[in-house]
Design brief:
Helices cover 18% and strands 54% of the residues. It has a four-stranded antiparallel sheet with strand order 1-3-2-6. Strand 4 and strand 5 form a beta hairpin. The chain is globular, with a radius of gyration of 13 Å.
Length: 107
Amino acid sequence: MVRLFLYGTLLDPALLRRFAGRAVPLTAATLHGWRRVSLQGTHYPTVRRARGTVSGAVATVDRAALTRLSAYEGPRYRLTPIVVRTARGEQAASAWIAPGGTLRDWP
C-alpha cells in the first residue's frame, strides 16, 4: 500500500474513483513549507517549496491503483516523498510534483 498526498484534481472523489478503479477514502492533510501553484503551460497544479501550507488529503492505494493514477498524472509529474500533517500527526507520504511551477497560485 502507498500513502499519497493529493492536492489538486484528484481531490474530486468521482475523478479519483474513476482512475483508481474503486472508491478511495480521503483524510484531510496539510503540507507545510510548500505552495500550490499553476504548472507552466497547463491548467493543472503542482507544488513548489515556499513559505506556506498546501491543503489536501491523504489517500492509501494499492500498487494497481497507483499504476493507474500515475498514468493519469502523466510523465511531467514525479512521485516525491514528503511529510504531511493529519489529525493523527505527521505522516510520511508521496506526492506527484512536477518541475516548472509558476509563481501564480493555482485556483
